[in-house]
Amino acid sequence: CGATLLCRPQGMVTFLVGDNEERVEHVSKCALCVRSVFFRTMFGIGMKERDAAEVTVLETDLASFTALVRYLLTDQLDLGEGEGEQARRALVLRQLAHKYQVPRLELLCAQALQESVGPASAVPLLEAAHTTGDGRLLAHCRRYVADHAAEVRASGGVEQLRDMSVAKGLLGDALDQ
After folding, report:
1. What CATH number has the domain spanning 1-84?
2. How do the domains of the chain map onto residue ranges?
């Protein structure tokens, strides 16, 4: 494939994804190596995956991993259908992009997350940003909640709040206004 002298994997790989080992079949190892340092290392010299026909990926779901592979092969971002599903997929896909060292995809997912902040999604995204340490999304969601408090409350966003430290932060924001 010519990605590097150290990475010349041959053939295709099938990924067994999640606890149910759902299959993502016939993926070019070479194409993955060109787009991801992680895969370049995984399929490189001395690694057991280099000659493996199947690789198990446990930490994600089939739709999100398929979206990652599709992005690597086609440069097309698939966040699914519906506002809630798109935000959820963008969160998971951003984490996969980070793990598999695909910085452009990570940025595209971060942008999609910021664009998806609305009355019903602001609080869940705020909690997710807090959990994942995404300071930019956290600040964006906090500003959104402060500026659109009535809409967030009316959408049921406040009832979705589960993380006490996020609740304390929102209370502090409200008191500062």
Report:
1. 3.30.710.10
2. 1-84
Strand ranges for the chain from DSSP E: 12-17, 22-28, 54-57
Q: Are 12 and 31 in contact (CB under 8 A)?
A: no
Distances (CA, A) of 5 to 10, 28, 43, 46, 83: 13, 17, 12, 13, 43
Q: What is the mean pLDDT of each run of 10 residues along the chain (177 residues)?
A: 49 94 94 93 88 92 95 93 83 94 95 91 87 88 90 81 61 57
Model pTM? Answer: 0.79
Q: Output the CA–CA distances (angstroms, integers) from residue 119 to 7, 31, 111, 127, 152, in the order listed.
A: 47, 40, 18, 14, 4
Residues 111, 97: contact at Cβ < 8 Å? no
Distances (CA, A) of 93 to 36, 69, 103: 14, 10, 11
